[in-house]
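Hey all, sorry for the wall of text incoming. These are the four entities for the joint prediction.
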Amino acid sequence: MCRWIAYRGETTALEHYVTEPAHSLVAQSIHALESTASINGDGFGLGWYGLHPEPGLYREIRPAWSDENLRYLCRHLQSHLFFAHVRAATGTAITRVNCHPFASGKWLFMHNGYLGNWSRWRRQVEGLITDELYPSRNGTTDSEAIFLAMMGAGIDRPVAAAEKILATLTNFVNRNEPADRFRFTAALANGRDLYAFRYAVNDHANTLYYRESERGIVIVSEPFDRDKDWVTVPENHVVIACAGERARMLPLFHRHQEAAE
Amino acid sequence: MCRWIAYRGETTALEHYVTEPAHSLVAQSIHALESTASINGDGFGLGWYGLHPEPGLYREIRPAWSDENLRYLCRHLQSHLFFAHVRAATGTAITRVNCHPFASGKWLFMHNGYLGNWSRWRRQVEGLITDELYPSRNGTTDSEAIFLAMMGAGIDRPVAAAEKILATLTNFVNRNEPADRFRFTAALANGRDLYAFRYAVNDHANTLYYRESERGIVIVSEPFDRDKDWVTVPENHVVIACAGERARMLPLFHRHQEAAE
Amino acid sequence: MCRWIAYRGETTALEHYVTEPAHSLVAQSIHALESTASINGDGFGLGWYGLHPEPGLYREIRPAWSDENLRYLCRHLQSHLFFAHVRAATGTAITRVNCHPFASGKWLFMHNGYLGNWSRWRRQVEGLITDELYPSRNGTTDSEAIFLAMMGAGIDRPVAAAEKILATLTNFVNRNEPADRFRFTAALANGRDLYAFRYAVNDHANTLYYRESERGIVIVSEPFDRDKDWVTVPENHVVIACAGERARMLPLFHRHQEAAE
Amino acid sequence: MCRWIAYRGETTALEHYVTEPAHSLVAQSIHALESTASINGDGFGLGWYGLHPEPGLYREIRPAWSDENLRYLCRHLQSHLFFAHVRAATGTAITRVNCHPFASGKWLFMHNGYLGNWSRWRRQVEGLITDELYPSRNGTTDSEAIFLAMMGAGIDRPVAAAEKILATLTNFVNRNEPADRFRFTAALANGRDLYAFRYAVNDHANTLYYRESERGIVIVSEPFDRDKDWVTVPENHVVIACAGERARMLPLFHRHQEAAE
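and here's what came out:
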């Protein structure tokens, strides 16, 4: 049960969102409130876009709360679109390649949730990854495998690609008797547009909130302050925050939203 | 506010004390009960005696709960006298050299507590370290400095050496206006004998317990099971567990105990 | 091109083989002689057998030459059968799970070599791993995949299992046009018996030597001293060093040797 | 014998100097040419100035050649003044706090060289650090201690401050019989101006070069390409590269240069 934050808007220093707020992501690494795991000390990561078309990554296996490099980077890195993630591992190794976010080409992805009985389903999910992308399978998490599967499922239409893979995974977990749980609260971006998903099958979905202003949008697994403007994203919905537009919230697996892209 | 465990007795695998109990030290690293810091995720360490006269050390900066090496070592290392420590840092860097236990020659030391206003007192405490031992000052913690000061204060009579340094440190902290706090709950060993101290000035002392049987003695900052045989060590006392003898508990700064050695 | 050492014999401290010799494995980590990579600074590992039926592991991503924990462990760990390995990565991530040795049940394995065009063959090689063992696929190296494939190919007859997988891999690399290179210089043990392989197809095999005395056998990728008793293992041979017997050296893929087991 | 590079000029991505050149600093980490230590694998660091008045730092204990975070940061960080350093340790621990560069307020410092018999002189050199700055003494290297001593010796006139401390250290090492060696090839910056020193006593000084163009100046311990424009800095000289001016090269301990500031 990890915690994460995604931002798209005016270019800003990461510290205003990642390290400075009272209940910042770094504070959540040592004491999260809306998570079954209150400690997210199994590594962390930053992903951000700058002048280069491909995003930058900084991932580390030590806890976010004690990493002095992270504080320097959050102060000095400025970005119009960035991700930050603190990890609570659910069975896979504590390695940098298992830390979020994951990058592939211009795309960035991070995830909070899990696919139940991962050891059982892993091979099938990895089988969804195209041969071309399989060399990018650097770790062993469900999250990275799902992302790479989505990459090969027509990522240029990201909501449709996500729905296609989520439908396949839903079929997988429902094949078991009793059915396995699957929770997927994730963010996806391409340097311009930001997408956030809240989905679950056979389980409650992990929390997801966002707050939008003229300066930009921030999407989080739990609010980092007591402001009342946080919007709760309902289960099985996607938030679409395209560059230059107000964010839209749409139900997943719904025709209109596919047309809307 | 760290957590630690010390054992002296029949040779045993470390896992029986460090990783296996319900509320083991590794469990305490992610959820301690009797500590102001419930998370002790800022590194950890093992120190143990074997055939070699000098102890072995294994210290790491990642949290104990996620270190697979630690689990293998606790299963395979056997010892008649060992220390294990999980750290919650109070201002100094997360480096291996700042992790407990500390070793010097045949001696091993670990500590839970702190010396208030450490930045102010550090130079004076380091000044207590002899020139001969100063090259062994590898980190920046109060704990290591106090240990090295004790090493140069007649360590062959360890309780007297500890009392001498504790008295000096008590003078230091009482010089400030208002006086600084000093908490010292520590273990010291030489490969044969084990000493544990519970002391504080201008503050409550951190908890200390022990349990003794025919097989040996285990001394802990908090019990790792609900057994009723744990003995609470009172404030300002020392536990002396010499090889081949029953443990004795004596008040610190008390003539009789000096003679008793 | 990694460097490694394997020992089976009288119980001894690891330091006599790993850290103390003039051209010890740790010295080879910073300056190997018979390797295309003179620096083996991409992590290292120890594997050893003790009282427990399953081996212990200590793996780290920093260079062996600067790891103080390694020196303490080599001094304090005693074993009748142990492996040590320093890594020069050839494309896969520097993570503990990609460091050798690898363990599965009572078996231990380490490797020096590579399978050319690994990105192309990876999926096929992973396909050789049984479903039961696939959850043990923690990293992304060719070495770990080959080991797990061997584990599922009748590991109770280890030379036959190795030959079966080596034959399959040889078929794989020969399918490419031009054929890919495959070098496999590896050690395998089960707590009693030690096997070492030197094999290559479409390439020269990496060097392999051993030295045997009444006290035991040590097998290495390059000698750690100038002693003249080192025996060069020819290409496409296996060294079989069973408990209580003199070592035998046999050609791989040879009927007599299968019967000899 | 570390390797380093310092840049001041037009804002540029760090990668053009740190990772891309044929014989880049990262290449030098695994194979330096003009150093007694050809391998600089004991950690590394970046320091850079951006919008914030205080510099950013990224320091790691693993070798530069295998750190994927470093590659991302060098691609994405842009700066008008930055330092990069790869370390070959000479006796002190491999910890982040012992990695260069060091920062104090707006100042940045890195060093290649050593002060002979450091264990003997350490206490005296640390005694040169003011009480106010002593809490910033996070590691145990000679380099950090010398920097903090300079910080307290009137750093607003940096060449004079450096000369004052170099003179004191020269007195120290000359007191020994035979005299100890001292090599100091270092860079210092405040966000606007860049200073580089090449000095030694009782020894040859480590190499130092620079290259200047209209776009800026780059100062290095060894050239990263075969360009013929590299200027060799003579022993006991300082390079002064102030913002908006051509670099000047002056002898150390020379009246005119003090007046020139």
